[in-house]
Amino acid sequence: MPPVDAQTSQWFAEEIQPHEPALRAYLRSKFSAYPDIEDLVQETYARLLQAREHSAAEISKAYVFATARNAAIDFFRRRRIAVIDCVAEIEVLPVLEDRPDVAEAAARNQELALLAEAIQALPTRCRQILTLRKLHGLSHREIATSLGLSENTVNAQIAIGVVRLRDHLRQRGVGAPQP
To answer: How do the domains of the chain map onto residue ranges?
Structure first.
């Protein structure tokens, strides 16, 4: 993803962020089972930035909420768990080894190396903010306070970072293909 210019930052601050309190309230009420509303908001922002990049159409408030709803639905769709009937004699079942085989472990290590490369490719402030949020679990407010930034800047940097990471990984064949 190309660097976010001042015009995109201004658009985000003026057109998207004013809806954030209502968006959070909507997500909490409709998707209370979602484990982390913050991540859902950031995924929504990432999708909106990507939509703006690929289309000249105006993004309305309804589009923002529909994007958030679709992000939540995608999460729950990926999370579906198959129901397995109880087996009376569990000891007669063949036992499979739980740990991944060599190919799976190598693929996972390769994906982690690509992720580390993608994180290192981020601008310094964006990388720092994403690290504090995703690895250290700090809230947006805590990050803003510790770095002397506004919460809006933290929100924008996380959204930008998520989009850049996703694009970087997709370009290297990791993750879902772009539509």
So the answer is: 6-77
